[in-house]
Amino acid sequence: MIILPVFSIRQNNQVSSESEKMKLIRTHLKKINKPFVKSIKSPDGDIIDCVPFHLQPAFDLPELKSRVLLYAIGYARGEYYGLNATLNVWAPKVAANGFSLSQIWLAADVSSEDLNTIEAGWQVYPSLYGNDAPRLFIFWTSENYKNGCYNLLCSGFVQTNNRVALGAAIQPISTYNGPQYDIKLLIWKDPKTNDWWLDFENNLVGYWPSTLFTGLQEHAEFVEFGGEVVHSEISDSHPPTQMGSGHFAGEGFGKASFIKNLEVVDGLNKINRVSDMTLQIDKPNCYDITGGSNDDWGTYIYFGGPGNNCQN
After folding, report:
1. Which residues, 6+ apart, have CB-to-CB distance to 117 below 8 Å?
2. Which of 71, 151, 253, 268 has its CA 20 to 30 A from that of 247?
3. 44 band by pLDDT with thresholds 50, 70 and 90
4. What is the per-residue pLDDT across 13-27, written as a single tens digit (0 to 9) for each?
């Protein structure tokens, strides 16, 4: 997998009509804009601005919002200090102002207005990134999506690696009945500092300070994994948004999207296979999910779909 370097990204591509969310993002970007010391043009057209470590936006503070409409996920409940997984990468078709993602979550204070989440994976989000390439992303919130943000769009995540760019395009991507590609992600809680670290392909990327959170200052109560989409109402002018490969889970390897090697970190800092997994689907006519376990893949799920018949 290739993730283009370094700390922050600005896109060459311009979106013709700004959504309300993009207006918020643009306003916020003006607030957190930092002087960069060098710009690099990536092969996929991104202009990557390198900023000094101490000037990255993680050392400021406001907020953005995110919401989810449809999902196909697996989850487990317990006391967790990390989550490890391998995510199959695709480029699903996304309707205007929508997005499609595959990710892992850690969550605490789930039943309160102070829901805490840490999220990481890949997403296709044209109105945010300017094109339909799958991108490495992270997200966090400590107030039920009333604060927090993607990547480095607000203060919070502290990046320590100058070779991995959050929000950068992922290459290569899987093809139907063709080669399959994936990325490896690990999020775990440092028992000494209590901060939550992100590892991408065996590279430490940075951390979420424990002071960002309430419940996640201690541990996660849920781990979740799978796909989510947001899209406008489906009509002739608003085609459906695909999840995963755009094909249902039952088609299996090489056709449906998967997440495998699902493992959790326990209180002794040991990694164990996810057990007692529950599967949940919002709209089974649009997207579905299956799960299992074997010696080669450990605990795994297949999920996704074309997004048709969501009104049924």
Report:
1. 105, 106, 107, 139, 140, 141, 148
2. 151
3. low
4. 433 344 555 555 555
pTM of the model: 0.80
Q: How far apart are CA 246 and CA 252, in angstroms?
A: 12
Query: Per residue in 251-295, pLDDT tens?
Result: 999 999 999 999 999 999 999 999 999 999 988 989 999 999 999
Question: What 3 state SS string does the chain have?
Answer: CEECCCCEEECCCCCCCCCHHHHHHHHHHHHHCCCCCEEEECCCCCEEEECCHHHCHHHCCCCCCCCCCEEEEEEEEEEECEEEEEEECCCCCCCCCCEEEEEEEEEECCCCCCCEEEEEEEEECHHHHCCCCCEEEEEEECCCCCCCEECCCCCCCEECCCCCCCCCEEECCCCCCCCCCEEEEEEEECCCCCCEEEEECCEEEEEECHHHCCHHHCCEEEEEEEEEEECCCCCCCCCCCCECCCCCHHHCCCCCEEEEEEEEECCCCCEEECCCCEEEECCCCCCEEEEEEECCCEEEEEEEECCCCCCC
Query: What one-letter code names the amino acid at 156?
Result: G
What is the Rg, in whole angstroms, of the alpha carbon atoms belonging to the chain? Answer: 18
Q: How many CA atoms lie within 13 A of 94 on its CB side?
A: 26
